């Protein structure tokens, strides 16, 4: 269904092109972009996951509080972006899989296993993708903060920080500069953030994004996951 | 009759050229449509309004459609979009409610369950590329909690203190954001009705697929109450001053 996302481009003709009669009828586009931004930062023994809560379509704000990040278990959080309907279903499916694993093995699923499961779940819909760009945060087997980022069809990568969604083009360069220390003379590569630093950067990222991106705002859900479990806090963003 | 030539309806073979002619067809546009639904939370529960028009394109075809209905004991459903898809869904909801009643366990479906059921149907149909061409507003009180949710043909779902579908999302929602947002608990029934009428009046003035015959409904702890059709006071004096447009 990838081609459907570009249906507008398809209909555009070059000035020299004559319109060609299409034999296959135009199909209905089942995807919606609901905007919103998600962010993940991995630390030494924790991981921070943050998502704004605005849901919009075009110039309309549907609601000011529709959480995009979900606690899948007491040690993993899944943050999503783009198509809200697909995102909600994906989380349900993943939660069911995690639950199934628990009953089968009498032990909670590890972050790595759940990360692979998410990739497989996305890839199972290769021909009709979930239009979602997930970020998964948890604690790995060594007790380190684990952050995984995915594309809509299941390509998976372990990262130290990542931003996805409508303001990703605003947030990612900020993180590249502040955490990745990219292209800075004298800098010694990626920084390992403390909890407080990560929290401050996440908040600054979102206040910045809410200023310039109309699809990001209203409320910010921040999850900090460590060995003790998931700590959630909700902060206010710009409401306009 | 010769038993060999007997044909049951489902065994009748259609001519080859008919079965294989043309692509599979699905709903690609709505036919008879209902316009905006406006709903919001107030002190005692949920209040909702919709007009009684079923439009056939620009023709005001059916002028006594009921677009607000009760589902189960304490849920209110408002619909905009294709009326036939809605009637199909209404049968499914009735089946579900009947099934639950047959369980005879003294339990009835709450608003959240009805909302989830509806959302799952919408998501399933979207995945089949054969959507139900509607936007639904579900309101109710579930275990003392006010629930107001929305689902559309893409299965986009959300909950909010104020919800308006269709043209209402452009014309009524700004009014609701100004008058309702953040003060739902202070709004009495009297004020709620006044706000609702203001929204419906603006919609009647500006949306060409509306009709000045509408119903309102509320869900409170006492249950669901849907009004008889009524009309709004309108004032067209300004029309005198319009110059141009061939007037």
From TrEMBL, chain A:
Gene3D superfamilies: Glutamine Phosphoribosylpyrophosphate, subunit 1, domain 1 (3.60.20.10). Its EC number is 3.4.25.1. This is Proteasome subunit beta type-6. The keyword Nucleus applies. InterPro entries: Ntn_hydrolases_N (IPR029055), Proteasome_sua/b (IPR001353), Proteasome_suB-type (IPR023333). One of its GO terms (biological process) is proteolysis involved in protein catabolic process. GO terms for molecular function: hydrolase activity. GO terms for cellular component: cytoplasm; nucleus; proteasome core complex. It holds the Pfam family Proteasome. Residues 1-21 are annotated as: Disordered. It is an enzyme of class 3 (hydrolase). Keywords: Cytoplasm, Hydrolase, Nucleus, Proteasome. It is found in: Nucleus.
Automatic annotation (TrEMBL), chain B:
The keyword Cytoplasm applies. The keyword Hydrolase applies. GO terms for biological process: proteolysis involved in protein catabolic process. It comes from the Eukaryota. InterPro entries: Ntn_hydrolases_N, Proteasome_beta4, Proteasome_bsu_CS, Proteasome_sua/b, Proteasome_suB-type. GO terms for cellular component: cytoplasm; nucleus; proteasome core complex, beta-subunit complex. Keywords: Cytoplasm, Hydrolase, Nucleus, Proteasome. GO terms for molecular function: hydrolase activity. Pfam families: Proteasome. PROSITE patterns: PROTEASOME_BETA_1, PROTEASOME_BETA_2. It is found in: Cytoplasm; Nucleus. Belongs to the peptidase T1B family. Non-catalytic component of the proteasome. This is Proteasome subunit beta. It comes from Coemansia guatemalensis.
